[in-house]
Amino acid sequence: MTGKLYGLGLGPGDPELLTLKAHRILTGAPVVAYPAPDTGPSFARQIAAPYLRADQLEVPIVVPMRVERFPAQEIYDEAAETLARHLDAGSDVAVLCEGDPFFFGSFMYLFERLSGRYETEVVPGVSSMMAAAAALGRPLAARNDVLSIVPGPLDDETMRTRIEAAGAVAIIKVGRHSARIRALIEAMGLTACAGYVERVSLPEQRVMPLSAVPESAAPYFSMILIYKGGEGWNAALSRTTMDGAS
Amino acid sequence: MTGKLYGLGLGPGDPELLTLKAHRILTGAPVVAYPAPDTGPSFARQIAAPYLRADQLEVPIVVPMRVERFPAQEIYDEAAETLARHLDAGSDVAVLCEGDPFFFGSFMYLFERLSGRYETEVVPGVSSMMAAAAALGRPLAARNDVLSIVPGPLDDETMRTRIEAAGAVAIIKVGRHSARIRALIEAMGLTACAGYVERVSLPEQRVMPLSAVPESAAPYFSMILIYKGGEGWNAALSRTTMDGAS
User: Fold this and answer.
1) How high is the ipTM of this complex?
2) Which of A155, A200, B136, B196 has the fewest CB atoms found within 10 Å of its own CB?
3) A232 to each of A137, A190, B17, B171, how far by Cα in Å?
């Protein structure tokens, strides 16, 4: 009997935003794998930390931050073979995923290598996008809005056309693109209906109207939400407290 | 002391996809409100049913199915005043929301009426969109894809331009628009990278490539996911089992 592979969505950061299902599978898995940077802690492991036990085998999958300079395919080939050895030995393996495993996540690289060989289940998680809307206190999208999720590294012209075509927009992976994106939104006249969230659901969460964001670069885990016609919602936001996790 | 208002995301249907936080708040709330159709059971209540207790006061918010014929604003005005009476009496009120409260949900209508008057917290939930990708076994979106969520009632031309502009698409509220949408996707040459999911995460869940969907109308709780360049993923899907919840 080979083991079963799980991709566990852990939610945006608050350990209480794990699902009951992810919690059950996490605490029952003999082997727990997670992506980790080459230096510093693994964010996925941090989310799961309150529930991990000393008798679980932990398998960090080290993915260098500047992965474009590295042979990323080889990293996932090697990680897949490591997990395959545990699965072949009959151990279930839970791969920890920040947010949701299939929403811009790296779990797909392991899934495509292993799901044909082993029983595999993906457990969806709360996305940071939903958590950001909750923190801002305004809808992501409603009724017949088109909602577009736009990665921050896209060039200005692509981003502009996608924002123009949607009723609501979530810009993810803002990070070092922050100043450029804010300038674009300002030029489009949409600053008044844009909100900013960083490190959502963590104790160090920050929430504010986009107009209040300081000039310095945003952290990688930051997001801008635009809700057109959302000026009323944004005015409400600016009356509420601007910091602190929920 | 007035009570606190919660908007609780319950996830897509499987009661085990509640978050630990939603579970804690749900089981501690003296008053539990939920949207309900004019006839038949409330889906939100069904998700929460395993955790409800007889000593909790239940407040159905009856929203007629053909709400466009009814004065919907008055329904939410009246519901808000009902909840306000419980909040004024010092009781916390948990409003149950299918999926995520702010992802195309009706909780916004209560939030906008009550959040200025009472302490309010929105607890994000697992969206049916993430659950559908997990059930299909393929990514929603990856890397620098633009992901667009497109409501099924939109007209063909709007839908076509939004699908063309995105790397990945989730079409929600498919329901009675099913045949028209499938014809559009076929005309765009995208059927081979489209998957279909209905009643995701429930025992009666159905998952299949779009090409295998029968002619009859889809239920309201159905979704089509398009992942361009996803033909390899779709081929994998057609090799896996096509039914049964995870």
Assistant:
1) 0.93
2) A155
3) 12, 13, 33, 28
B165 contact residues in A (CB cutoff 8 A): 161-162, 165
Nearest chain A CA: its distance from B76 CA (Å): 16
Cβ proximity of A225 and A141 under 8 Å: no
B contacts of A122 (beta carbons < 8 Å): 133-134, 137, 246
DSSP string, B141-188: B-TT--EEEEETTS-HHHHHHHHHH-SEEEEE--GGGHHHHHHHHHHT
3-state SS of A143-188 is CCCCEEEEECCCCHHHHHHHHHHCCEEEEECCHHHHHHHHHHHHHC
- How would you write the pLDDT of chain A (246 residues) with one tens digit per residue? 999 999 999 999 999 999 999 999 999 999 999 999 988 999 999 999 999 999 999 999 998 866 555 567 889 999 999 999 999 999 999 999 999 999 999 999 999 999 999 999 999 999 999 999 999 999 999 889 999 999 999 999 999 999 999 999 999 999 889 999 999 999 999 999 999 999 999 999 999 999 999 877 678 789 999 998 765 665 555 444 333 333
- Residue where the block lists tokens 């489209």: B194
Spatial separation of the C-alpha atoms in residues B63 and B56, rounded to whole Å: 22
Q: Closest chain B residue to A239 measured between Cα atoms?
A: B116
- In chain A the domains, ranked by start, together with CATH numbers, are 5-123 (3.40.1010.10), 128-239 (3.30.950.10)
Beta-ladder partners of B62: B36
